[in-house]
Amino acid sequence: MAPRRPCIEPRCPGFAIPGRARCGAHQRAAWRAANAAKPPELLAFYASSVWKALSRAHRLQNPWCSLCASEGRSTPAVQVDHIVGIRQAPDRALDPENLQSLCMSCHNRKTFAEGRR
Prior knowledge:
The protein is mainly alpha-helical. The protein has helices at residues 24-36, 40-47, 49-61, 66-70, 104-116, and strands at residues 79-82, 99-102.
């Protein structure tokens, strides 16, 4: 069992959520701030029942991370990712051929790399 780490926010007496850098209250605030910077139509798309049903069905059919599988590892997928992003190809947002199942690590790495371009 790993030792608890303090929250990275200045003067916060709380402890970080396991796997995160902030306590629960500060993590929620960070997520809210990140979502506030996203376009409202993008947030509405990901909150839609159509996307939720499609992503759930995709995860059931493809339960393993496709990037890890290409490297010979078996990692459970937790995210459904658009191969070509919604901003680049909005007409492919609900195209099953444009989706891939990813673990959190691969999804974060891909999202970070796309943001740097």
